[in-house]
User: Fold this.
Amino acid sequence: MTQALDEIKIGGMGASRRRVEDNRFIRGRGNYIDDIVLPGMLHMEILRSPMAHARIRSIDTSKAWDIPGVRLVLTGEMMAARNLAWMPTLSYDTQAVLATDKVRFQGQEVACVIADDPYIAKDGCDAIVVDYEPLPVIVNPTQALATDAPVIRDDKVNQHDNVAFDWEVGDKEGTDRAFEQAHLVSKIKLHYPRSHPSPLECCGSIADFDRATSKLTVYMTSQAPHIVRAAVAMVAELPEHMIRIVSPDLGGGFGNKVPIYPGYVMSILASILTERPVKWIEDRSGNLISTGFGRDVYLDGELALREDGKILAVRMKTTSDHGAFFADAQPSKFKIGLMHSAFACYDIPYAHLSARGVYTTKAPGGVAYRCSFRVTEAMFFQERMVQAAADDLGMDQAEFRRINFVRDDDFPHRTPYGFLTDSGQYAKCLDVGLEAIGYAEFLKEKEEARKRGRLLGIGISTMTEPLGAGNSREYDILGIKMFDSAELRVHMTGKAILRTGAMNQGQGHQTTWAQIVAHELGLPADDITVEEGDTDTAPFGMGTYASRSTPVAGAAVSMVSRKVKAKARKLAAHLLEVSEEDIEWELGRFYVRSARDRGVSIQECAMAAYSNMPDGLEPGLEANAYYDPPNLTWPFGCYIATVEVDPVTGVWDVLRVVAVDDCGVRINPMIVEGQIMGGLTEAYAMANMQFITFDAEGNCVGSNFMDYLIPSAWETPGYELHEVVTPCPHHPIGAKGVGECATVGGPAAFVNAVIDALKGTGVRNIDMPLLPDRVYEALTQKHDVSGAPPVRTDN
Amino acid sequence: MYPSRFRYEAPATIEEVIDLLHDGGGEAKVLAGGQSLIPLMKLRFAAPELVVDINRLAGLDYHRVDPDGSIHVGALCRHADLERSVLLSSKQPTMAEAAPLIADPIVRTRGTLVGSLCHADPQGDWAAVVTALGGYVVAQGRDGRRTIPVDEFVSGPFQNVLAYDEIVVEAVIPPPTGTVAGGYLKLERRVGDFATAGSAVALELSGDVVLRAGIALTGVGASTINATNSAAVLTGRALTSEVIGEAADLAAVAAQPKSDHRGSAEYKRHLVRTFVERILTRVTETQQRAA
Ligand SMILES: Cc1cc2nc3c(=O)[nH]c(=O)nc-3n(C[C@H](O)[C@H](O)[C@H](O)COP(=O)(O)OP(=O)(O)OC[C@H]3O[C@@H](n4cnc5c(N)ncnc54)[C@H](O)[C@@H]3O)c2cc1C
Assistant:
């Protein structure tokens, strides 16, 4: 007789199972791109432009060719001869692979050298002589939109200015009318500085074209290997079945590894030309100065307010700086991503957003850095606007949010910009957070401290964000609809292999996906192998970013398990010699409804699938499932930080951070908590220290880890985590995305806390990062410190 | 991050090191902890033909206090040795406070104080500390040894006065004549960051009265700044709040900061002033508690 299993014991839903992948990672036995060595492999190094904007007069590669061990030198001209000098971006623009006419940002790829080892390749790069004719540099939207600004994208036929796009959404007339009726209009100008996902492992690829089989295998750092295969097939005009993309272990991605970069393309062409595997490993500066950045958006925000604090309408005007090529990774319908998901947790009748994107002579690639397509900017702007509005009204921060929240009984709810949210308990999350931080007591403590000259502050940030694109009706990337799939094969001894089209890069898919199967099928999670990343074996998927894996691929895992279970049920009926209708399921076993002790385990069904199947039933126990989500998932987060600002130096310390996350049902609570802590750390980094900026010559400041600061264990604050669970109504196991919530919602909590500490000094805003000198300037000059972080000079 | 081709030698005696440097004719570099030299080579900002690794030299990893009270730090004594030093925590507060603020734990396990002085980075912390303490280095060349006060040793940003075939064998802090006090404060944007600004204060006291004072500044000039005027107002006086304020103001005047992405010149000057004031105030508070 078999028995129902204890779900936690088999590592099912809700088990804080240890991460399977850590076993190899902590032993140094991971298999990252640079660990892969192929016989006869050559090495590629890239020569990058030192100038931000310049015409290329000539490139002399002769000295590089002369160096023993140099096998190939590629320039834009040679790429152009093969129609590969330009490639499409993920936002229907084009991007130079190797510059032909001009360089348009510092760090742009100008040539590459392929040699026997990377040292020789680097020597080769040093030997190339490029003659540049400098052109005026444009490092911000104001310069880009000036009437006399040179046209950066003179390669495009109909481009006569530096505007990449103009786009709008919302109800303009309704919004205008609501503003006319407002008791008070609260306005604020904000900038979300350029930041960089900076995964610890930079990008890289090994292209291996086999002339004998005509097959191209590319090992590469991609969060979306299937999209890459499709893109290579279309751009390089190679047959799709002759392309195999393999993403090995990824040392982080955070959105940086979604786009296709020139380095990948060059290594592919180099391998085709040399008929040898060609490895390209990007260095840190290369990664920081040339690959997908995040943010760099300016906001003019306005809230129309009623006297009692009710928000009547929102008006947002964004100007975003995309660099030299519009290469954002985002669904094709939306030019500024899902910026219009702003204010989704508030019940507001009218909203309008107008967005303008501009070209500058800076690196391209506005990727969703740990956020669902510009949602980080949306929620930061939202929560800074909310704080300013409450302050302008003289209302309590918590109370102002509470009266504007969408109520628990008001779902499904149409957001001000037209999304449909489906679930949540916003006020409850806020209450849990306020209780945990001791809100009332802190406000008193703050008053007391003020009297003794100490500056304490508290910042709240509450938001719901759209995670898990599709559905396929509205979301596509370059026309490919956003859904995912999974394949599950149960072997005869009851062990199984699961493959999905997602791509783990630290989220713990190997651990979590097995837990979903365990939950659905009762197979112990330890008995399930999870594989992703090889397009020859993994089923199709749109990859992992925008917190979409659990909402989409994870749902596919559930659905494929259910298909397998349906077949196992037939096998069970056969084994138990009853009809299918007479069979019941409890975790890990089928039993006869009328005789509970007569049952068979799922493992026995698996064996029967290979050894004792009924007549007419196809042998084997496997299935695949495609999942197209009916809607996005809408997790909610409430983040509260308290800080103390040193009034003399402007240095601020975090006292406490409370996070309340409602991401629906938690599959592996430990992994969820890890995601939240990591997200909060990135939030803290952006608020406190992180930015990439450019001086007047277009030099990138923040091109290495001495200047682009990653917080270490020393300065990272401690976090107190709490949860509320509102299951997602449409996800098969009630889960919502969570990977990015804290990165998205966190920054405003820290900034709001510092601004709160400065309340009464006349300072309404300091833009991120709140470096001590910026806080000091605000405190002593009693004015806002806004805009991109300046590179200060004395002249 | 691939350096240019170079020859590598790791001799076992100082004489061999000096001979190799001599033969290198100015194209050779000493490698100590490598925490400054190796990054420069990987970025190809430095491309020495010969690297002479001194890590195999025996007996240079010491730091000790001699009977006369002088402190000696050997060329292979690591930042981490000084950070964990019981000797420093009881005998030399300025050094003790600086050691854990150098870089991060990983860098500290390899980098050396002497290497830091030789590297002469205007943002290097040790140069300010040793300058404030009136220290000197002992250099050895083919003609034997000579001593060079640290504020003469550093001749400009990333420049020192060593001949190309000389190495520094140790740094020395002269014996104090009174009770030592002082400290080191620095603003870093995160652990492991170079200073936005830093102030080193070294005092020798007799009762309330300052017998000797040294104040030096990090990151606010083309090289380490010896704020002699600021130190001078302290000498022979007790640390009243007026005296402290005067010294702090003069330190800010001595600073020659440049505005950059770490902050404005004005802000850095303000930090220097604040740090000097805070260190000196702390000293008076300790005095009051002791009294
Ligand atoms: C991430 C990082 C952060 C850092 N942060 C800080 C910081 O906050 N504060 C700070 O002060 N420093 C910092 N440093 C620099 C660090 O302190 C270095 O250790 C130090 O500057 C050099 O010491 P070294 O032993 O590593 O010297 P090396 O790198 O080996 O040598 C540096 C230079 O000095 C010369 N040299 C070394 N020893 C001798 C000798 N005995 N005789 C003659 N010449 C010699 C070398 O030829 C070379 O030119 C940081 C370094 C890194 C990598």
